[in-house]
Design a protein that fits this description.
It is built from 19 helices and 31 strands. It is an alpha/beta fold and 723 residues long. The chain binds adenosine-5'-diphosphate (ADP) and zinc ion. Adenosine-5'-diphosphate binds next to α7. Zinc ion (ZN) binds next to loops.
C-alpha cells in the first residue's frame, strides 16, 4: 500500500503504548507500511514505524505531520506481525515490543560523513576528573562518536567538545562499516557419520521443501549435532534466506564462532549484550538490508529487523536463559517457533536434554523429531553412580565424600583430568555469628549475604549489595565469631587444594573469571594444562574438554529442593550436561553424584541412563498437577516500596479477579524472596487448562487496574522464575 491514496500513517512508537498514533503524511512524501519515520510527540521527536496507512483520519481530529522518513529498508510484514503477536501473547503494550526492535539508535544516524574523536596524546592544561575519564576512554584506541564517547565516560558532550577545541582530542572520519562476507556453503563441512547423514537429510528436507515445520533435534552431548544443523543452515542459505543461530548468551564463545566461521568460510554477524555500539549498528543495518546472512546471537537477536529469515536454529533449546524476566518477558525459543509459523519457515530446536514442552510437542506430532543416539565415535553417556550422603559421613567443614576423593586421586594418578561441579558461587551461602546466632542478611532483600572470600566481601546475589566481611558481629559486637555455613565454589576449592596439593587447579565461576581471562582458562583446560577443574554451571555448557574422564557432582539436590515446577527437569538437564563433559576424548568417562535422595526416581533414572523412565515420571507429575505443558501458567507480580500501600493494592487486585471457567488463581502470596532492592513483592499464580485463553483472562482482570506511585504490576506469561 502506498501513501498517495492513503494520506494518514498510523505510526507505532517505542513507548508503553497499546497501539499506533495517527499522523498526516505531508505533501511530496511517500510512505509504505513498515517504513521508519521521525514523528513529533509533544515536544519530542521520536523514531517509529508506519504500522498502517489509512485513507482517512478519524473525524474531528487534528493530526500532526510526519517529519521525515529514514532511508533504510522498511520493516517486513512478517516482522510487524511478529511484534503484534508477541505483544498479544505476553499481554504487553506493542510499543514496548517495538522498543526491543529499535534498540540500536545509532542505526538511524546518517551513515555518511560521520566524525569521531580520538586522543592525540597532547597535554591538557586544565585536568578535571571528568576530562580524565574521557581521556581514559579515548585512549583505548577506538575512534568514537561524540555522544558515544561522552556516554562511555559518563560526562556531557560539552566536555568532549571543549577537549577537542583544546587539542586533546582530534576529529577523524569514521570508516564505512565493514561489509559482510557472503558465506561459502561448501567450505568446511566434515565428513558426516552415517547417523549424522541421516539426520542432516531429514533436517535439510524441511528447509528445501519450504515447510514451516518445527524439528526437535535430540541427541546426546557430543553426538555431533552442530555439524548436522550446519547442513540445514547451508540449505537455507542456498535458498537465499538469512539464518539465525540462537545460543544462550553464555555459550556465545569465540570457540563456537570459529566453528561457524570454519564451516562457512565467513565471519558470521554476532549479536549479544557486549557488542560495541558501532558493531551493533553494522549488524542491525546488515540484517535489515539482508547482507548479513548468518547471525549467531543471544535471545534478543530475534528482534533484529530481518529482511528474509529462512531458518532459526535454537541450540540448547532447554536452557532457561532463553527466558527474559525483566522488562518485556518472553521466551526466545517459543518466540522463535512463533516467528517460524508467521514467516512460514522451519525452526530447529537442538538439545541433548530437550525441555518437556518440546518432547510433548514431538509426542503429539506437532514437531518433527530427529534423534542422534551415537556420541561421535563413542556409544553412550558416561557411567553415572550415586553416593548416598546419608550413609557417607563427611568430615566437618568438608564436602567431598571418600568415594569422590578416591576417584579423583585415581584420575589424577592416571594423568587424566577431573571436574568437581557445584552450582553455587562464592565461599559460603550463609554467614552466622557463633556468639549470638545473628545471620548476615542483605539490608535491601529478604536474603542472606553470600561470602566471597577472594574479594573479602559479603554479597547479595539479588540486588548486588556488598560490604566488607566485618571482623565483629554487627549485632553483639563480639570479634572473630562469624562463621561460614555450607559450601560455595571457593570453599570447595580450598578443600581441593588441601586434599590434592599436587593438582593443577582451575576454578571456573562467572564471578572469578571474567572475559578474556575466562577464555584463556577454558582454552588451557581444553589443552589439558590443568588436571583438576572446579566449576559452577558455567562449565556444564558446551565446552569440549578432551582430557576429562571423571566428574564429581558435589550436591545434586540443590535444584530438586526448590519450589520450581521445573526443578526436576533442571536437575536432569544439568546432571546429564555435566556428566556429559566426561569421556569426550579417547578414554571413557565416569561420574559420581552426591545426593541425599538416591531413591528419588530422577536419581535412579540418572544412574540407569534411563531417559525414557525419567520422562515418563516427569510427564506424570506435570499432568497430574495441571502444569505446563499440560496446563497454562501466568504470574502477576506486584512490587512497591511501601509495605502497607503495596498490600492494599494487592488486595484491590485480588478483589477484581474474575471467575473463569477452570481457571484457578493462587495467591496473593508474598513472593519467596519477599523483599528485593527494598521493594515488597507479592505474587499471584494463574493456572488454567490448555484450551483456556489465559491472555484474555488476564486482560479482563487487569483492564481497570492502574498501579500508582512506587507500585509496579508485571505480567509473566509462562513463568520460569518463581522467586
Ligand atoms: P554436540 O553439538 O552434539 O554436543 P558437536 O557437534 O559439538 O556435538 O560435536 C562434538 C565433537 O565431535 C566436536 O569436536 C566436533 O568437531 C566433532 N565431530 C562431530 N561430527 C564430526 C564428524 N563427522 N567428523 C569429525 N568430527 C566430528
Ligand atoms: Zn540484596
Amino acid at each position: 500500500m502506498n501513501s498517495n491514496s492513503h494520506p494518514i500513517a498510523d505510526v507505532l512508537l517505542p513507548l508503553a503504548l497499546e497501539g499506533p498514533y495517527s499522523y498526516r503524511i505531508p505533501e511530496g512524501m511517500t510512505l509504505e507500511e513498515g517504513c521508519y519515520v521521525a514523528v513529533p510527540l509533544g515536544p519530542r521527536t521520536l523514531i517509529g514505524v508506519v504500522w498502517v496507512l489509512k485513507a482517512q483520519a478519524p473525524e474531528g481530529t487534528k493530526l500532526r505531520d510526519v517529519i521525515a522518513r529514514f532511508d533504510m529498508p522498511a520493516m517486513g510484514e512478517t516482522h510487524r506481525k511478529f511484534v503484534d503477536w508477541l505483544a498479544d501473547y505476553y499481554v504487553e503494550p506493542k510499543g514496548n515490543v517495538l522498543r526491543m526492535v529499535l534498540r540500536c539508535p545509532g542505526a538511524f544516524e546518517e551513515a555518511k560523513g560521520q566524525v569521531a574523536y580520538r586522543a592525540t596524546g597532547q597535554q591538557i592544561r586544565r585536568m578535571t576528573p571528568q576530562r580524565q575519564r574521557v581521556l581514559d576512554v579515548a585512549s583505548e584506541g577506538f575512534a568514537m562518536r561524540q555522544s558515544e564517547l561522552a556516554k562511555a565516560a559518563g560526562v556531557g558532550t560539552s566536555v568532549v567538545k571543549s577537549m577537542a577545541k583544546e587539542g586533546a582530542l582530534e576529529v577523524v572520519a569514521l570508516p564505512a562499516h565493514k561489509a559482510f562476507q557472503p558465506p561459502d556453503l561448501n567450505a568446511g563441512g566434515l565428513t558426516l557419520s552415517k547417523q549424522q547423514q541421516l539426520a542432516a537429510h531429514e533436517l535439510r528436507a524441511v528447509v528445501t521443501t519450504r515447510s514451516a515445520k518445527v524439528m526437535l533435534f535430540d541427541g546426546v552431548t557430543g553426538s555431533g549435532k552442530t555439524e548436522v544443523y550446519f547442513e540445514a543452515m547451508a540449505a537455507a542459505l542456498a535458498a537465499g534466506g538469512q539464518v539465525l543461530l540462537l545460543l544462550p548468551e553464555i555459550a556465545l564463545t569465540a570457540g563456537f564462532i570459529t566453528r561457524v566461521e570454519t564451516r562457512f568460510a565467513c565471519e558470521p554477524a554476532q549479536w549479544h549484550s557486549d557488542l560495541r555500539p558501532r558493531e551493533r549498528e553494522r549488524v542491525w543495518r546488515g540484517v535489515a538490508s539482508g547482507e548479513a546472512r548468518i547471525v549467531v546471537g543471544a535471545r534478543s537477536a530475534l528482534f533484529l529487523p530481518w529482511k528474509k529469515l529462512g531458518l532459526i536454529v535454537v541450540d540448547e533449546e532447554h536452557e532457561s536463559a532463553y527466558k527474559q524476566d525483566d522488562g518485556v518477558t518472553y521466551h526466545a525459543r517459543d518466540m522463535a517457533v512463533l516467528y517460524g509459523a508467521i514467516g512460514k519457515f522451519p525452526v530447529i530446536l537442538s538439545s541433548a536434554t530437550p525441555s518437556l514442552e518440546s518432547i510433548v510437542n514431538a509426542d503429539r506430532g506437532r514437531y518433527g523429531h530427529v534423534k542422534l543416539n551415537d556420541r561421535h565415535g563413542r556409544p553412550e553417556l558416561p557411567e553415572i553412580d550415586l553416593v548416598d550422603m546419608r550413609k557417607t559421613p563427611l568430615e566437618s567443614g568438608a564436602w567431598l565424600s571418600a568415594p569422590l576423593i578416591e576417584n579423583i586421586t585415581a584420575t589424577l594418578a592416571a594423568g587424566d583430568q577431573a571436574l568437581l561441579f557445584l552450582n553455587r558461587r562464592g565461599y559460603a551461602p550463609v554467614t552466622v555469628c557463633r556468639a549470638c546466632g545473628h545471620r548476615m542478611d542483605c539490608p535491601n532483600c529478604a536474603a542472606s549475604l553470600v561470602e566471597h572470600r577472594f574479594r573479602r566481601q559479603l554479597m547479595c546475589h539479588h540486588c548486588g549489595h556488598h560490604e566488607p566481611t566485618p571482623k565483629a558481629c554487627p549485632q553483639c559486637g563480639v570479634e572473630d565469631k562469624l562463621v561460614p555455613c555450607g559450601p560455595g565454589i571457593e570453599r570447595l576449592a580450598e578443600e581441593a587444594v588441601q586434599r590434592f596439593p599436587e593438582a593443577r587447579l582451575a576454578i571456573l565461576s562467572s564471578d572469578l573469571a571474567r572475559g578474556v581471562f575466562l577464555r584463556d582458562v577454558i582454552r588451557d583446560v581444553t589443552k589439558g594444562e590443568y588436571n583438576l577443574v572446579i566449576g559452577t554451571q558455567l562449565v556444564a555448557k558446551g565446552h569440549h574438554f578432551p582430557f576429562l574422564t571423571f566428574v564429581g557432582v558435589v550436591d545434586a539436590d540443590l535444584a530438586l529442593e526448590s519450589s520450581d515446577p521445573r526443578g526436576g527437569e533442571r536437575t536432569w538437564a544439568l546432571m546429564a550436561q555435566v556428566a556429559g563433559r566426561a569421556g569426550r576424548g579417547e578414554k571413557p568417562g565416569h561420574a559420581l553424584v552426591q545426593t541425599h535422595v538416591p531413591e528419588h526416581p530422577l536419581m535412579q533414572a540418572l544412574k540407569n541412563g534411563d531417559r525414557e523412565g525419567y520422562l515418563a515420571q516427569e510427564k506424570l507429575i506435570r499432568e497430574n498437577a495441571g502444569l505446563p505443558p499440560y496446563g497454562r501458567l501466568a504470574a502477576v507480580i506486584i512490587a512497591g516500596s511501601d509495605a502497607a500501600e503495596t498490600e492494599r493494592f494487592v488486595r484491590l487486585v485480588a478483589r477484581a479477579a474474575p471467575t473463569g471457567e477452570g481457571v484457578t488463581i493462587l495467591g496473593p502470596a508474598t513472593a519467596p524472596i519477599h523483599i528485593v532492592r527494598g521493594r515488597f513483592r507479592w505474587r499471584f499464580l494463574v493456572k488454567a487448562p490448555r484450551e483456556v485463553n489465559i491472555q484474555a483472562f488476564l486482560r479482563q482482570w487487569l483492564k481497570d487496574i492502574k498501579p500508582k506511585g512506587s507500585i509496579h504490576l508485571g505480567i509473566d506469561v509462562d513463568p520460569y522464575n518463581f522467586l
